[in-house]
TrEMBL record:
<dbReference type="InterPro" id="IPR006944">
    <property type="entry name" value="Phage/GTA_portal"/>
</dbReference>
<dbReference type="InterPro" id="IPR006427">
    <property type="entry name" value="Portal_HK97"/>
</dbReference>
<feature type="compositionally biased region" description="Pro residues">
    <location>
        <begin position="392"/>
        <end position="401"/>
    </location>
</feature>
<dbReference type="Pfam" id="PF04860">
    <property type="entry name" value="Phage_portal"/>
</dbReference>
<feature type="region of interest" description="Disordered">
    <location>
        <begin position="368"/>
        <end position="412"/>
    </location>
</feature>
<protein>
    <submittedName>
        <fullName>Phage portal protein</fullName>
    </submittedName>
</protein>
Length: 412
């Protein structure tokens, strides 16, 4: 049985509007630049693709597990039914990384992501998670009850209750549908598409006018056609565009230099990179648009800022959504929750970690605030015996040597 057959089951199928689906996939509101912008045209913009990729990778690459709060300790709940689903294999053809990557592409480009929950048994334990393309789903709110109308490849559609669909939302205005970042930033994205298209057309086949070729006297039609054909063959396009010309009969070639319009065009393209990065909350350096004054040290701090200000809010959003929609009330009451572990992204250099751990464990005259085993867990090392207590502070300075009793008292 295919996925759609399993998903629809015995639900009553009804015809869907082909025109509605076509508009949803290929339509999009026109930006002020005159370009129609939707998720498909937006993702073809290099900056949009880079922003989406860097966030999606940041969410997909860190471990995501089910934990249980046991009072004084919080342990991975490796025996919980959801643990292998989100940590290893959510479905037959995707890894945990691939699922989260797909979900983030949907979420970032459309503001919403939808995942079908494959549940088994009387307890309805989730054993499978399968993402559904956003354009196939219509969200309906009736009397504070959410339902999801899902359309299949064959044009049939069925309505599913909220407990069968995991709906992740981006920032929302009405609380039940996420805002579409692509539509909100359509003017910035549209201008980027327009300038990219204009520049591509300008350079198509190397036909941009690079200079003026003048000759003494008038050219006959045969001479003009011959000269044009010769230039097309020997001086225009690809590797030939930079070869020097050998001219006679008083012919002169005057190259055209970059104009103010050209320079402004380049500045516009750079500005659009920054505008799109602002829309997605990504620092330009993360998409390869770095300031000339950036140093290794400043780049490292910007990377840490990317984790804190860009990725951590997404971690929190997904964690809370998963806790509410993938765990049962009984699970939550028993202390189960999901958690991303981005410590590896925040570890920094070995020297920086050593200094941090040294202060955390305490030093001369200063009491620490972490136990040795807490430090070891951050480095993914096994605990040691006696490592669950905070070390006592060491003396602030060297102690005075005790007299031995046989020191020289000055007598002969």
């Amino acid at each position: 049985m295919g996925f759609w057959s399993r998903l629809f089951g015995d639900a009553d199928a009804k015809s869907a509007s082909t025109l509605e689906l076509f508009r949803e996939i290929y339509g999009g509101r026109e930006a002020r630049s005159g370009v129609s912008v939707n998720w498909q045209t937006a993702i073809e913009v290099a900056t949009v693709l880079a922003c989406v990729r860097v966030i999606a990778n940041g969410v997909a690459q860190v471990p995501w597990r089910v934990y249980q709060d046991q009072g004084r300790s919080k342990r991975p709940a490796v025996n919980h039914y959801l643990y292998p689903v989100i940590y290893r294999r959510p479905n037959k053809w995707q890894s945990s990384f691939a699922l989260r990557e797909t979900v983030m592409y949907h979420l970032l480009l459309t503001g919403n992501a939808f995942v079908w929950k494959g549940m088994v048994g009387s307890k309805r334990e989730i054993r499978e998670l399968k993402p559904i393309e956003p354009h196939r789903v219509t969200v309906q709110m009736t009397d504070d009850v959410l339902t999801y109308r899902v359309q299949a490849d064959n044009g049939q559609a069925a309505v599913f209750p909220a407990d069968q669909i995991w709906h992740l939302r981006g920032p929302s205005w009405n609380t039940w549908i996420g805002l579409d970042a692509t539509k909100l930033a359509r003017d910035a994205i549209g201008l980027s598409i327009a300038t990219e298209t204009a520049q591509a057309e300008l350079h198509k086949n190397g036909a941009r006018v690079g200079g003026l070729l003048s000759v003494d006297g008038n050219l006959s039609k045969e001479q003009f056609d011959f000269l044009s054909a010769w230039l097309d063959k020997h001086a225009i396009g690809g590797e030939r565009s930079q070869k020097p010309l050998i001219l006679d009969h008083g012919a002169k070639f005057s190259p055209f230099q970059m104009t103010g319009v050209d320079a402004q065009h380049l500045e516009t393209r750079k500005h659009q990179i920054e505008e799109i990065c602002r829309a997605y909350g990504v620092m330009p350096i993360m998409v390869g648009h770095a300031d000339k004054t950036a140093t290794y040290a400043s780049a490292e701090q910007m990377f840490l800022a990317h984790v804190v200000y860009t990725l951590l809010p997404w971690y929190e959003r997904i964690e809370q959504s998963a806790d509410n929609e993938l765990l049962s009330e009984t699970d939550r009451a028993d202390g189960y929750y999901t958690k991303f572990s981005p410590n590896g992204l925040l570890r920094g250099a070995a020297k920086d970690r050593a200094e941090f751990y040294s202060k955390a464990l305490g030093g001369p005259g200063a009491r620490g605030y972490m136990t040795p085993n807490e430090v070891r867990s951050l480095e993914e090392l096994d605990p040691i015996d006696g490592g669950d207590t905070i070390p006592e502070p060491m003396p602030a300075g060297p102690s005075e040597p005790k007299p031995t009793g046989d020191e020289n008292d000055g007598s002969n």
